[in-house]
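Supplementary material to the annual report.
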Amino acid sequence: MTKAIERQGFPVTQIANLTPIAKTVGANRIVQSFSIPYPMGDPKKTPEDEFAMRERIVEKALDALTQDIQDQTIYKVDMG
Amino acid sequence: MKKAVLYINQFFGQIGGEDKADFEPEIRTEENGVSQALNAALKDIEVTHTIICGDNYMGSRQEEALAFVTGQLEKIDFDVVIAGPAFQAGRYGNACGIVCKTVQDKFGKPAITSMHEENPGVDLFRNDVIIMKGGKSAAAMKKDIAKMADYLNRKLAGETMGCADDEGYFGRGLRHQVWPQGEAPASKRVIDMLLKKLHGEPFVTELPIPKSDRVPIAAPVKDLSHAKVAIVTSGGVVPVDNPDRIQSASATRWGRYDINGMERLESGVFKTIHAGYDPAVCDANPNVCVPVDAMRDMEKKGKIGELHHYFYSTVGTGTTQAEATRMGNEIASKLKEEQVDAVLLVST
Amino acid sequence: MKLKIHNFKVEEIRFGQTDSFENGILTIDKEAALAVVRNVRNITEADLEIVNPGDMVRLCPVKEAIEPRSRTDGRSIFPGVTGDVDYCGAGEIHALKNCSVLVVGKHWGGFQDGLIDMGGEGAKYTYFSQLHNIVLVADSSETFEQREQQKKNTALRWAGMALAEHIGNIVKNLTSNDVEEFDFEPLTKRSPEVMKLPSVVLVLQFQSQMENPGYNDLLYGWDTNHMVPTFMSPTEILDGAVISGSFMPCSSKWATYDIQNAPIIKDLFAEHGKTINFLGVIASNLNVALEQKERSAIIQANMAEELGADSAIVAEEGYGNPDADFILCLRALEDKGIKTIGLTNECTGRDGASQPLVSLDEKADAIVSCGNVSELIELPAMPKVLGELESLGRDGLSGGWAGDEKLGPSVRPDGSIIMENNAMFCGDQVLGWSVKTMKEF
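Predicted assembly:
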């Protein structure tokens, strides 16, 4: 889906846990998520810490949209 | 008796050589060298017409050439189209490929051609058309014709056809499960492959690794603080009643959901229907997958101009690439209408 | 470790006044067996039926298959699961062959359940159509999950295991002429002739995707999600150390029966000392966070290296995100110079055109492929159904659906069905029986 949407000209950041899969399939802007069942969640954190992590991932993903990259790029975030 | 229409170029149509490559297409009922050879090899199938077209004409005036071909085919009763064989001739291979694909798409009838593996037409059309593996030059004419004829004889008689390797055509990238006669169980096949690999002997993997397919990198967002960003997900987050009845696996449907006025997604209002992962955390807080709460904060902080008021959702597990591409295309069209600037796509 | 499996081949199963096994005929006291089942917590209803190869019977939703076995020394057949935790892998065990206990839901199915046709066109899609089966059709009071797509199926599965041991006890005190011996010598004490042979280790990636307990494969009763790769004797696997879970889309699932009989292990034993030096099993898993996948890949590769493995076979119980673990393990081994063979199935979509594994690497150059979870299968109605056929479309079985614009519902009013191979019970037989393969068209 990422590729179909990007082919139409939209910059897309994919937030995914299995970055090797996202890369193989061909996404260009990839931000690593925390896990598969809760990409931007962590039941072990307090709600505040979890929200802070979610914001860090979202912010990184938004920044990736503005980057003029030359090749597939995977961004990592401090999960805290 | 089934009816075949043959497509050949100016050379095999005995019009002329390179000097006649611009030959405007014609349809004939008289036999020619290729149709004769085919008729000798075909069983219960007869070549009734031959379309002859110059390779350059097809190359540079493709629309008109194809319009001629389809126009003629509309007027006659036919069961199959045979093109070539094209051997190594690039323009001819391209012509045969596009003719066969057009016939299949427009008439839903089978078409077949033959080319040498180095013919550029192979890479262009192998996924769409049955291209028999052919010889390098016209010296292979008889052999290539025999192969095409044998395939058609069985196929049009209603037989179940074998895989690409068994039948001798270039694989179309479609992988299916089969029960080959006398196939050893998987554990024995593993041992066999293991011993060969250990001893440096040749072996054939059952799963060749395909080449990857890439998309040109879309231009970055110039001014994020004024941009409208949409969330799309394959994590299956939907309103709790799943109004669009999106499937929990092998999805063919997607939905878009209005989040106007919502500061976050509430548990009990939204949930996930994706069957491929443990839903507990997402159901308790759907924002872990569709981060409306974080994106609202980004809006407030002025990081983005606007969070788009719809999020788009489907389910990724088991869903085919073809369906995912179709859904992605449909969603992209909507995003265009809704003047979205960029997308965050969350997968699970 | 030396394991002896005393085999008792079943040719016919009957219900009768008393339990017995004689001349291949297994007679079961139905009421006594049902009493054992009803004793299992949360079982509300239960019945038993016998089905044989060729019978025109369809079973759905099938949750588990178990080979009936018993021990003579007081250990349960699944230590840590149905009895106290105890050793597996050495000593004696008695097994009733050519048969299995099949656990079928009376009503409720789920993503992880499947279908078996004992006869007709559909029989070829599962291994169990070749066996004589004691079918437990049961229901439980586990209402918390009745409408859930993901089911632990705890009551039914534990009832199945209890039943399998109860039936296995019928041959507990009998002797057999058909004894399989698996002698797995300690690695450092092998003869020079064996040490000269190229060595191989078998990595088994057990399903462990769920983070809540009750769904994953268990190793000596321990949730495989909560472990790192562990070196084991292959005799432990054959001897009940690992049981199947309740999550995996069914054609990729390794039933407990599959694990008890793992053809890949038996074939490696057959070659051991002749063409290869079989170094044993690395029990690995398929967790859902990338870091956990990477950790397992690292540990199994290090382990294989220090075992001195020349080669490794990696078998994956799953498709989709577990393909990442599969490829990570293969690549980690190849990077250490260990030659790998992969053993798995594919998901190429109904049209056959999708990428076969979600993750790929050129280093994975030797793979045996057992089937396509996405293959569309259409089958006629069967005169008899055990379970509830509607569950295929209603309850979210991985290869069934309630409605589809092009294909209609999975279960049609006349009882004929259209489904994906995904819901064929353990259909891809990845642990070794599969005579299916994948070809390009």
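The first strand of chain B starts at residue 2 and ends at 9.
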